[in-house]
Amino acid sequence: MIRFVAARAGGAAAVLAAISLFVAFGIRLTGDPAVVLFQGSAPSAEDIARIRHALGTDRPFLAQYAGFVAGALRGDLGTSFRSGLPVTGMILERTGPTLALGVGGMLVALAAAFPLGAYAATHRNALADFLIRVGSLLGLSFPNFWLAIMLILIVAVRLRWLPPSGYSGPGSLVLPCVTLGVILASTLVRLVRASLLDTLGQPYMRTARAKGLRESRVVVRHGLRNALLPVVTFVGLQFGALLGGVVVLENVFAWPGLGQLALQAVTYRDYPVVQGVVVVLALGVLLVNLLVDLSYGLLNPRVRVGP
Amino acid sequence: MTRRTVLVFVLCAAMAVGAGGAVNAQSPAGSRGRSLVIVQGQDPQNWDPIATFLLSWGMVGCQIFDGLVDRGTDLKLRPGLATSWSTSDDGLTWVFKLRAGVTFHDGEPFNAAAVKFTFDRLLGPEGAKGPQQGNYKSIDHVQVVDPYTVRMVMKVKDPVIITKLAGYGAMIVPPKYLQDHGSAYFGANPVGTGPFKFVEYRKDDHLTLAANRAYWGGAPRVSAVTYRFVPEAATRVAELQAGRADIAQGVPVSQASVVKGDANLTLLPIGSPTVLEIRFDPSKPPAGDVRFRKAVIAAIDVQKIIDTILQGYGHRVSTFQSPLSFGNDPSLKPYLFDPAHAKSLLAEAGVKSGTDVSLSFPSNNADFREAAQAMVSYLGAVGLKLTLTPVEQVTYFSDVLPHAKTGPIYEFGWGGWTLDFDNTAYLLYHKGEYWNPVFSDADVEKYLGAERTTNDQRTRLKAFQSLDRRLYDLAIDFPLWQSVNLWGINKRVEGFAAPPDDRVRLLQVSTR
Amino acid sequence: MTAAQAVSAPLPAARRTRRPIGLRLTLIVGLGLVAAAGLSAIASPLLAPHAPDAADLGARLLPPAWLRPSAYPLGTDAIGRDLLSRIIYGARVSLEVGVVSVAASGIAGTCLGLLAGYYGGWWGELVMRAADLQLSFPFILFAIVVIAVLGPGLSRIVLVLAVTQWASYARLVRSETLAVRETDYIQAARAIGLADRRIIWAHVLPNALGAVSVLATLSVANNILLEAALTFLGLGVDPSIPSWGGMLADSRNYIQTAWWDSTFPGLAIMLTVMGFNLVGDWLRDRLTPETA
User: Fold this and answer.
1) How near does any CA of chain A get to the CA of B432, in Å?
2) Do C277 and A198 touch (CB under 8 A)?
3) Which residue among B16, B45, B53 sits closest to A39, beta carbon to beta carbon?
4) Predicted TM-score of the model (pTM)
5) Could you tell me if A185 and B267 are in contact, meaning their C-beta atoms sit under 8 angstroms apart?
6) pLDDT digits (tens, 9 = 90+) for A166-210
7) CA–CA separation, A147 vs A186, rounded Å?
């Protein structure tokens, strides 16, 4: 086990190195931040050279990359080209809103998915099951921005129950989290249903029933608990994707999170911020992946972990 | 079993509903009293005047900072922190008399030393890190004459220097505050002499300012202003409709009727200095052929596009400048819409029916995006197959345009805010300029040269009008319209004048 | 991106139980919807009443014909084009984006996952680390970088989707393969000296196909929506060529004034997504072996 974790940590370090190299190189192919600063005006060659020098982008690529790595190892991700502030602080500032959105959305999804999935599984192939399955597809059928705008128009503009956008107090969390939750729930409902169906057929369930337990007790006590494991795995895996995937929602809801930070940074070719966000997100995802891989081994002893 | 499952379900549903009902976030406009909420699309991320060229900075920056000179919503120059100014005969020295008794928001006095500090910083190594320095290269240095008089020594004569002193980079900054805290801190916690002072800033979320009761121009009539940064236009309009914002910048034409249809809101259109056109890249066939260019121009009914897609929010132009610009030739009329003529021109030029032509444009301009799709249909009617290439806007302006990576035709927008054709004409038609990597014409160079070598306005105007005529005949570009910016305002806001240059003035604004 | 990764967790196999009417209905409805989308894509010129890019600026944002009689059954969009014709033609781009990218990423990911799971060792390690790399790179940023470097275009979008999704399949198939590899019948097949290729092809692959088909059908839907998200962020393709996602993104400013402009492309996406998923449900039931 320790060897496995050590090997994986080594692998993760290699992946991180590759990602940082890829992002540092890739973002430099997309345009020159010195030119971007002069939007709408006509910079002279000296103007551009002056800014490049100030930003340090006139140095050779490897020197810039080495500087980034050296700093990152000490926890210093550099200084933003746009704001002039340390990237590490900027990322920390944005982590809260993004986590709030991610965790909130996941909670909404779980709250919806468990009852619906359980009901569908216990009424397999009945009309309710069909309706729940088809209904769950609705969440997969709308682009997130469209769902977000519809919710804003109905709940915030027509009913005036909640603020349309922004990050201010618990009320402002509801719409973004529900939007994200509905989208996640569509997949989750199907997963809970399938997982529960699988569990319900296991021998220990038959035993439980044979003991004369009430069916609802069987389902909730034994079925759901065991069906939980793959769902937890999914939730873990999904979180990595979530953090990088809320860009559009943060844009619609004017949410000051990592997604907006990343999008703005790419737009303005703020290399240090782009590099910082990508590396931090990747680190998070790798960590969760490692945990998920470890849990595979715990869940199914037949799976040999590691090489 | 079902009873229990149903119970769980109902509980969860109740929790969900309860979560919604428990939060009563209703905040109608009236409850904000004398404080104002403005939603704008972009957060410039750095409030240091030397660090930006963004209009979104200007919208906010002129509440916090003052320049020596001020430019109002009528675009006229008036005294700012300088009460008067004069220049030497050779135009190489300017003397400014400064306003006495002004203090920065942190209590530091405003005086000649602060002015000197501001320009030393702008022109020195600190300014070299930002884009604004290049704008002020004609200034050599600033000297303190007495505590309320400064002398500005020029390297070269600069006829528009006074206009530039109303610009972003020349905003006066507090010396002691900057020396104590440094530029990075200043960029996130700005201090100036303006009508509003900084309170709180959360990036990509909001900036709060409080009224500066001691403002030299009189106290503002509102108590506080909160700017919220909302990138999506549909959300900005929703904030306005929900009564949570008083002023929304950048309402898209497609949402104009929503704002107009709301009893609580007013739509304020204001002509901007930005002119939009389609340019041809003569190095890319078939755009090198003037008959092809004229055929494209004759095939598109611009007035109809303005009347329908833009709902009238655009003014037709015949050359690439606003009618107010010095150098405009009113005798030139917009090109005629004549599809039959377009067809015969294409036949003459030997352009086969069904020829593919690509039009590049920045993807963030929603109005042009729709206009371009109408052009597909217009050009299709004369036998050209127009394909549209939307390009992410920053890539478009920083890479695609200056390196001539467009298709044979492309969109180009230009804000000629000095209202003198010189700036535009030189940067766009003089060979080898940043915005003109390809086009060149001997006559055009001749007129440009003639315009620049004289100070006689009549000679200059003649040269410009010859230039206008030459460009019109060459049809190297297809001027479309002067843009109109739309602002959405809650009716409780009074005294708001939409600024043509996006520099909002809030001193006279009050709430009902 | 969310749904694609959504299913990369091990999906428990549904047991083969009774196969009542509900399941056949699932297949019939699902196939019907997919066939309808496929037909509009193939036969768009025959089905569409108007050319998809013919604009009539005098007839912008007309409501559906049953509300106000006109030559446009579902009304017109903001440029004055027939909405029905654009939806019919839109099936082409949307299915291309959805199906081609899923096919490419699915085949590549499945092969890599099978090999990584069956042989393991440094090769398996390499594949999985490459998958980690792909999965931990935020999709939208990857899309922006690729499109900024290669320029915009439909092929670029398909490429971005294919490249970013192979890893989900690889992870999924590898975990399925790992589970199957140690089962008695695979051990037995090895013991009797069956060739690896035959074992993988005949025994391992069918085991993984159930989960792969579910992921694939979900991804078709997801990719159609991702195209919409890219258009929303200004990274989309030629807006005069209709795609459902693009139509939905471009109509967002008209939701309050012309509901049909976003509703009908949305319905087209919804029905197609539903079709693919119902077929996927049915497939999973057919393909998943009883033991897993």
Assistant:
1) 11
2) no
3) B53
4) 0.87
5) no
6) 988 888 999 999 999 988 888 888 888 877 877 777 777 777 777
7) 13
